[in-house]
Amino acid sequence: MITRTRIAPSPTGYMHIGTLRTVMFDYYLARQTGGQFIVRIEDTDQARLVEGAVESLLNTFKKLDLDYDEGPVLLADGTLGEKGDVGPYTQSKRLDLYRPYADRLLADGNAYVCFCTSERLVEMRAAQVAAKQNPKYDRRCAGLSLDEVKKRQAAGEKFVIRMRIPEGESKFIDAIRGEISFNNADVDDQVIIKSDGFASYHLAVVVDDYLMKISHVLRGEEWISSTPKQIILHDMLGLPMPVYAHVPLILNPDKTKLSKRKGDVSVESYLAKGYLPAALINFISTLGYNPKADQEIYERAELTELFDLSKVSRAGAVMNIEKLDWMNHQYLMKLPAADLILAVQPFTTLDLASPVLQRALIIERERVSRLTEFADKLGAYVELGGYDPAILVWKKSSKEDALEQLQNISTVISQLPADTFVDISLLEAAVKEYISSNALQNGNVLWPLRIALSGLEKSASPYELLWALGQEESLRRVQLAFESLS
């Protein structure tokens, strides 16, 4: 079966990290069968629109190197265009498509015109809550005659169109959760055409999914309660129903819903913190789902091939930042040197064309989890911040011994052939040979040497520092350390 999946965000801000997980599940499902993955903008709630949100969404797709087959695109001049044959892909540009379906519902008695004011609805719901009743429309307007409706419309009264929920039960098979059923008596007569003429979410989504031939609808579990309204609309309109799958929530460590109050929720914020797109996608794709019990790191093609919707956990998944950091480190370690330079450059003002800094990147990626951490690490390779004489002396040694060791190791470094500096292991072997042949303690030699090269109490090994800095700069730093201690 060839699938057509879609992600249909409202343009109200940045992409939520939970939305990214649904995006990836949509993507894998479509790509498995050679189907299509579609982006559709659901902007019928005009009061909540945020300027630039669509552009932000599409930029996020670009940063994540995520391709889609149909939907809005950012053109070279920064304006929005579209690709695909069943567009437009923004609901506010599709308004003429929805009204005929609402009219059909009216004609069949499956919908009715409602003139109730917002003030009356607020009072009605407050009274229902006070009486411990399920708040829902009381159908005051459901019995209006056609003549009265026309008269009030002609008089200019504002109105909405509501679907008339039938008696009985609505049920569907959720691809993740199995059979879910609802008593229709608990379902409100949903507004399907608002007073401004815009279709509501429920009508628009049903019509769009039908016209765009969507086979699978994946969305967050918070949308489960809206599904019976859409099932009923499919039945009233005689439209085929897609497969629904409601993805569990992503949770904070305390098992509460992931929210801005307790941490970052946008994809952009994670990218800005220095997570690689590939690592973030790997992490979020295996949050609450893992195709193999003994594997954590996956290529995108592998995740696509192995994806199985039925294996997605029904339980909420905790946003484990420690695991994300670990995973990002694994990806940093695998990056080719040229790609590492490109990834780090936006996070530092230093010029990474420098051979010293390029070697420093290779060394320091062993000790970082995020791209943002490189900036502090690289500074010491460019300029020493001065020496604290106290830390130049190893705890089991003395100032006099440290001076002697610095002076002697400087001689050793100066006599090393230039080709020794092309390989960390060659430098390590040379320094260790000097230590063993002179019956010295490692700490007496390596501690002051490492501090001299880095200026820091905690740093890379002296062998790595010698390789990164090179012979000339290494000698200069050892001499500066000697003078500061003298």
Count of alpha/pi helices: 19
What profile does the largest beta sheet have? 3 strands, antiparallel
**Which whole number gives the mean pLDDT?**
94
**Low-pLDDT windows of residues:** none
Taken from the alpha-carbon principal axes, the silhouette is elongated
Question: What distance separates the N and C termini?
Answer: 78 Å
* Proportion of strand residues: 5-15%
As a whole number of angstroms, the C-alpha radius of gyration is 32 Å
The CATH class of the largest domain: Alpha Beta
Assign the CATH architecture of the largest domain.
3-Layer(aba) Sandwich
Summarize the structure.
By secondary structure, the protein is mostly helical. Helix content is 45%, strand content 11%. It has helices at 17-32, 53-63, 95-107, 118-130, 146-154, 201-211, 227-237, 267-272, 277-285, 300-306, 321-334, 337-344, 355-364, 374-382, 389-392, 399-415, 424-437, 442-454, 462-485; strands at 4-7, 36-39, 71-74, 80-83, 111-114, 160-163, 169-174, 178-183, 191-193, 216-220, 243-247, 250-251, 317-318.
Description:
The chain is mainly alpha-helical and 486 residues long. The protein folds into four domains: 4-91 and 250-318, Rossmann fold; 94-247, 3-Layer(aba) Sandwich (Rossmann fold), CATH 3.40.50; 335-382, no CATH class; 389-485, Orthogonal Bundle (Arc Repressor Mutant, subunit A). It has helices spanning 17-32, 53-63, 95-107, 118-130, 146-154, 201-211, 227-237, 267-272, 277-285, 300-306, 321-334, 337-344, 355-364, 374-382, 389-392, 399-415, 424-437, 442-454, 462-485; strands at residues 4-7, 36-39, 71-74, 80-83, 111-114, 160-163, 169-174, 178-183, 191-193, 216-220, 243-247, 250-251, 317-318. It has a three-stranded antiparallel sheet. The protein has a two-stranded parallel sheet with strand order 1-2. A two-stranded antiparallel sheet has the order 3-4. The mean pLDDT is 94.
